[in-house]
Amino acid sequence: MAQELTTVRPAGRADLPRILSIYNHEILFSTATYDTKPRTECEHEQWFAHHDSARPVLVAESDQEVCGWASLSPWSDRPAYDSSVEVSVYVAEEHRSKGIGRQLLQALIEAGRTQGHHALLGRISSDNIVSIRLHESLGFSVVGVLKEVGFKFGRWLDVSIMELLI
Predict the structure, then answer these.
(1) Neighbouring residues of 50: CB distance < 8 A, sequence distance ≥ 6
(2) Total number of domains in the chain
(3) CATH, residue 101
(4) Are 123 and 133 in contact (CB under 8 A)?
(5) What is the pLDDT of residues 88-126, one digit of tens each?
(6) CA angle, corner 16, sides to 40 and 11, nearest 5?
(7) Which of 112, 148, 150, 153 gives a 20 to 30 Å CA spacing to 30?
C-alpha cells in the first residue's frame, strides 16, 4: 500500500462541494452508505450545520485537493447517548488504498478523545470487508450484526455494528 502525503484538517464550507461529490458517488455506486438518492447541496449544507467542534467534519487533503472526509455525528438524539458518536469515513475512489482512510479514522478517534466522548460507533455494511478490517486495526470490535436491514442494488444487506470505547 503506497502512502499518500495528506493533511487532515477541519472541513470548511468551501470543502462542501467536494465532500458532497465523494458522498454522492458512494450513494450511486456502493454500499458504503444506505442512502439511495444523491444528496442536494441544500441537504448537504443542513447536514454540515449540525456538526461542530464536539462532532467535527474533517477532510484529508493532498495536493490541494480534498481526497476524503470523515465525521463524528450524534448516535441518537436522546440525552443519555450524548457521549456516544457515530464515525463516518469516505475516501474518493481514486485515492483508496493509500492510507487516507486510516489517517481520517485515527483523526476521528483523537477528536473523540479530545471532546470527551466515550463510545465511537460505526454502522458498516457487512459486505464492506475493507472498512471492517480498517476499523478493527484501530481497535474497533464488531459488537453485533443486524441481518437484512438494508435493501440496495436489488439485494438485502446486513450491517455490522462496530464499537471503540475510549
Answers:
(1) 73, 74
(2) 1
(3) 3.40.630.30
(4) no
(5) 999 999 999 999 999 999 999 999 999 999 999 999 999
(6) 145
(7) 112
